[in-house]
Design brief:
Two copies of one chain form a homodimer.
Chain A lengths: L3 H13 L4 E2 L1 H8 L3 H9 L5 E2 L3 E3 H12 L7 E4 L3 H8 L2 H4 L4 E6 L8 E2 L2 E5 L3 H8 L3 E4 L6 H11 L3 E4 L12 E4 L2 H26 L11
Parallel strand pairs in A: 4-5, 4-8, 5-7, 8-9, 9-10
Antiparallel strand pairs in A: 1-3, 2-3, 6-7
Chain A binds a DNA duplex (22 and 22 nucleotides) through helix 3 and strand 2.
DNA sequence: GATTGTGAAAGCGTTCACAGCC
DNA sequence: GGCTGTGAACGCTTTCACAATC
């Protein structure tokens, strides 16, 4: 249920705005999805709506948080203190949303010791100690692509059971370890694909408008 | 075809490693997907494989790049020079992968003028000028959630036709504008959900092992 | 013999439509 | 009357399986 976090976000906003009750239709509108889908998703949590009335916002927020395991903070550890790792650690968004950075590690000795976003960079050999002392369950990989699998192996060996991978590499891990991948370049490439199609469409329209022009090339 | 960028990445790695020919089975292995899916995806580009042999890596890379519109760089403009915007601009990954940062803008005058990742922050009023002079087609939103819709409106008004949204808000745009959303907190919350389930599973196992213990609570 | 390209089958998530309930 | 909860229909994606091709 990858949409629950989205509902949670928008319900929190509505709650802050003073809305105490909401219908599936309204949620659907805000989340830009179908109302039936919202009801199916929410019914998965239990029957927390009232027919003829809707859902109580505060109660729904609580139930979604419970389902997602957001009743307490989850410390994360970042592997890789390069550009991306520094950016992620310095960006305060993790901590604000309940995922404080419990540590940053790197293999390079010259990076060890520096302070990023209030957290000191440690050597990757300390990973197990950090994970166990801070009870870290989630690791973030922010290494260059070729080092990502090593980072994953180190995280798993240290006892981490969930991994968020920002490296442009597909990593493997033992069964039972959850992995998610976010590749910024992939996102941009997908947008590029759409741009490309738009450009092609413009071109073939132009060619149609001037039938005498050569119709070969990148059209279709 | 959101998998083409993934194939492209791994094919490029194979090419750099000296592999000149590859089968759908091998690609599937590297991409952690089914081989039939790889063939279906690639057949969508045209019949570029050779039966009994496989695919020529270099040619396939070229075809995927052509399909994705990666035959030239796409300049991007970042809206929001806060933590996240600075992080994204400073992280060199965009430029390296063919998406150089053509500009960063913000509404706050005190941010305007500072230098981030070699690019000077400009006022959001300059957005249209930046977009048109640099021929920017893709905008990146790195504002706080409440400002995201305004940022999107400004991007669309300036002539941008694709948006990558990092703000934790669902934005709307006119038909024909492509939008993708990346929410780091959502990714972590999905992992939290898996951790939560693991924790529950452990607890119910423990309860089963000691049948006398109270079976109520967060199990199931 | 090996591997692609692709119809057909299976699976999965979405949407419809309405009974059930407030 | 209004809105939820959900079985059934739908459509899209994935997977299978094999004929076509090198």
């Amino acid at each position: 249920m990858a949409r629950l976090p989205v509902y949670l976000q928008l319900l929190s906003e509505q709650f802050d705005a003073g809305v105490s009750n909401i219908s599936s239709e309204e949620i659907a509108e805000l989340a830009a999805v179908n109302a039936a889908k919202v009801r199916k998703d929410l019914s998965y949590l239990g029957s927390y709506g009232t027919r003829g009335v809707g859902y109580e916002v505060e109660f729904l927020i609580f139930q979604i948080k419970r389902e997602l395991g957001l009743t307490h903070d989850w410390h994360v550890v970042i592997v890789g203190a390069g550009n991306l790792g520094q950016a992620l650690a310095g960006y305060g968004g993790f901590g604000e949303r309940g995922f404080p950075v419990g540590g940053i590690v790197d293999v390079a000795d010259d990076k060890v010791g520096s302070l990023i976003g209030g957290v000191r960079v440690r050597h990757i050999d300390d990973l197990q100690h950090i994970v166990q002392s801070q009870n870290v369950a989630i690791g973030v990989i922010a290494t260059p692509g070729p080092a990502a699998q090593d980072a994953a192996d180190a995280l798993v060996a240290a006892g981490v059971t969930s991994i968020l991978n920002f490296a442009p590499t597909i990593i493997s891990a033992p069964h039972g370890i959850s992995i998610r991948k976010v590749d910024l370049a992939v996102e941009l490439q997908i947008l590029s694909y759409h741009e490309q199609r738009r450009a092609n469409a413009r071109q073939s329209t132009a060619l149609k408008a001037v039938p005498g022009a050569s119709g070969r090339g990148a059209s279709a």
